[in-house]
Amino acid sequence: MTPPDLSIIGEINGETTRQIVDVLRRSKGQPVHIEINSGGGYAFEGIASFNAIRKHRQVTCTVTGLAASAAGTIAIGCAKIRMYRNSMMMHHFTRSLTFGGAAEHRHEADLLEKLDDQYVQLVAEVTGHPDARIRSWLEEETWLTPQEAVDLNFADEIIESDHADFAPVAKSQRELLSKFRHVPTDIKAIVEGMAQPDLNIQPAKMA
Predict the structure, then answer these.
(1) CA angle 53, 54, 60 (to 5 degrees)
(2) pLDDT per residue of the chain (207 residues) written in tens, 0 to 9
(3) How many CB atoms lie within 10 A of CB 23?
(4) Is 185 exposed, middle or buried (0-12, 13-18, 19+ CB in 10 A)?
(5) 3-state SS assignment for residue 45
(6) For residues 73 and 45, is the Cβ–Cβ distance under 8 A?
(7) For residues 19 and 53, what is the distance between their CA atoms, to the nearest angstrom?
(8) What one-character-per-residue DSSP string does 106-152 give?
(9) β-strand 80-84 against 59-68: which pairing, if any?
């Protein structure tokens, strides 16, 4: 396997999208290899990156540790998705924090429902599963081992290795990971073992 053209580590944000688009443009239509170890970030940046990658058509993704939330969105946009034996992938419905009165909360809930419907269609496009099944997975915050991801059409290949590393993403995104409901024991142990929380993460819609 060729070395990665881009390594995505940490929060998915506008800079992530910019880096992906730049790499794709510089490739001039040639194959691109992206590595991912991220707990997610901004929903629309994940979707924008997904669309750019799908348009390019020749992107291989390797999940080196974790591809969760918006990072999982980016991963499944790739033409070929590889996961280390001890890596994981997670998908869930969008989430956000809202400040204001009842009208503001209702407006935000309506937006989240629209985003959720679009995300169901996005996952269906990649995996071929029925909408109802996908909706159930996303509502439950589904964490996938590499074998589960392959079996369910979220990934294509498992890489035999014993050194995939969750630590960089756990250290940089403790607050982000704390928002998830079903973080696996391996990742939670790393997060809880860190000394001080990273307070620089801003509230964001997650996908």
Answers:
(1) 60
(2) 678 999 999 899 999 999 999 999 999 999 999 999 999 999 999 999 999 999 999 999 999 989 999 999 999 999 999 999 989 999 998 876 677 788 887 777 777 788 889 999 999 999 999 999 999 999 989 999 999 999 999 999 999 865 556 665 555 556 666 667 676 666 666 556 654 434 333 333 334
(3) 19
(4) exposed
(5) helix
(6) no
(7) 12
(8) HHHHHHHHHHHHHHHHHHHHHH---HHHHHHHHHHTEEE-HHHHHHT
(9) parallel
Residue 145 structure tokens: 């081992």
Backbone angles phi, psi at 173, to 5 degrees: -140, 45
CA–CA separation, 83 and 162 (whole Å): 12
Give φ, ψ of 63 to 5 degrees. -85, 110
- Nearest CA among 61, 38, 28 for reference residue 168: 38
Tell how strand 142-144 and strand 157-159 pair up.
unpaired
**DSSP alpha helices (H): ranges in the chain?**
14-27, 43-56, 70-76, 102-127, 131-140, 146-151, 167-172, 174-177, 185-193
